[in-house]
Amino acid sequence: MRRKVVDGERVVAAGGMRELTQDLARSRELNPKRPTIEYYHSLRELHVLLPLAGPGGPA
Prior knowledge:
- It is a single chain.
- The chain is an alpha+beta fold.
- The protein has one domain (2-49).
- It contains two helices and three strands.
- The longest helix is centred in the middle third of the chain and has 11 residues, at 17-27.
- The protein starts with a strand and ends in a 10-residue tail after the last strand.
């Protein structure tokens, strides 16, 4: 699952990364064995990637 955050610099500066990833995690079943990735395309654009569980649950 990917979420693009256009104002990433503001979100990071305000400490909003935890809230953002928790909101994403509540929306789908995740695979806890794989890492969450924060990809900083630039100071303004941030991509957060969360690993989803497969059809049978976490691998």
